[in-house]
Amino acid sequence: MLQVENISFRIKSKHILQGVSFETYPGEFIAVLGANGAGKSTLIKLLSQEHKPFKGRILWKKRALRKTSAQQMASERAVLTQNIHMSHDFPVNEVVLMGRYPHFKNYPQTKDLEAVKATMQQTDTLVFRDRSYASLSGGEKQRVQLARALAQLHEVDHHSSKLLLLDEPLNNLDVKHQHNCLRLSQSFAQQGNVLLMVMHDINLAAMYAHKILLLHQGQVVGFGTPTEVLTEDKLSLCYNFPVKVEHHPYHHCPAVYFGNFPKAVGIN
What we know:
The protein contains 9 helices and 12 strands.
């Protein structure tokens, strides 16, 4: 489905990604983890064709991305990047409607307006659909941009898998909306799609993601289920900080704790 084969990327002489390879399948939610500077956002930029790999290749449905235009991919791939800046102010519903631009020429059709309404309901943004985008808080803007990305792929060819790339979508969100975003991501993947999400909260990744892609200094340290990847050795290497991994008491996944841990003292 999505095949990343030995890709490398550098800026001048600085290597950002080196020999990154992994493969995903329909129905998978992949959490991309790693410390600052590990190459997570660069990977999203390569997958979204904002950058081109210096080496290696990326295939989507066995098609090489370098031979596929971004316009061709617009009905199959949506992207939510960090720090989205709008040059002009718009009503919130107009911002979400931008996600439907690849699907109509002059005027939106009924299905486009329905997609906007549906994804705004999913992201809890319908309540301020007529407000100015500039007037929103950081978390509200993030939810609007998530609605835009979801609207782009909403009800588009049910029989063909889609690719959703989210770069730190949980930024600025409160606890309720973080979990809502993650549930929406799970639901999107379960419809036969592929979703990659850059995250910093390792425990949320362990709870919701099907697989973890763990990066360290531009290289893959682990790719697999949360239990396979989130080990003390791998995490201490990547984050250079003391870590303990235990079984979560309520969820069937690892629970990760960072910090300096005192030695257990026996009780007589």
